[in-house]
Here is the input.
Amino acid sequence: MMTIRAEKFHGTENDFLVVPADAPVTDRAAFAATHCDRETGVGGERTGADGVLFLDLDPTASPVRVTMTLVQPDGSVAAMCGNGARVAATWAARETGEREVVIGTPAGDRHAVVRSEGVTVEMGRPSFDPADVPLAHDAGGPLIDTPIEGLTVTALNTGVPHAVAFVDDVDEVDLDAVAPPVRHATIFPEGANVTLASRVEIDDDAREGAPGAPAAFRQRTFERGVEGETLACGTGAVALVAAAKRTGRLETDGPVRVSPPGGDLVIVVPDDGPATLTGPVEREFDVDVEDVA
Here is the structure.
């Protein structure tokens, strides 16, 4: 059986296999399901991965352009992934020596800047419009702090749909129990990622990486397509900050620290422009994996 050369990266522990788009992969969905499996997939410190990034680089573009296709463990293609976009930008920057990268995704083009202290990706404007989330036709308007299947959620699209619930302590919630009913709720005809958030006050000595940030949030996300919790979710981090602003829990146009289990992210959601996501990326290793017929 043919082997495929892949690399393993992670952005705040949201981990991916990176494969050039022209690699002779017979069935991308089967390839992702096999090698991302958390019990039997690719090895390393953590078995498996949260998805496979198939990357197509155009080094002649200005800025350089990389088209990103994220195939998730269930074989579906995600329209956008913030941490995956940071990985794609890092890979493209390494291949070309350029710091500015345009990332083509099914959700649209995203501009990224790669720096030694982290990668910043423009994430587009969050939308609460029922047609953008999308919500069922009988939703009756935006879903803001509304009880859905046991959680009080605010729904929005940050490249992919999210249902955000603010709770006292994210660690006190059994995410695997409460998230699936919301993820599959009939009001979300295409499903939704489910993100929990809890507010954390930070003092001046704890603002490294988010200078001037007035507040921070802890985050946990159950991801559609992974069908489980991931250690970080960039679109979810943007979604929770946007939802906090929309519901009056946060009043700032400046940087906000969001801390999923995998590390810290810095989010900016301005009133008059696209949101941004900043965080680190690490390359773990390269590996030969078998094609899956």
Q: What stands out?
A: Residues 82-96 form the longest helix (15 residues).
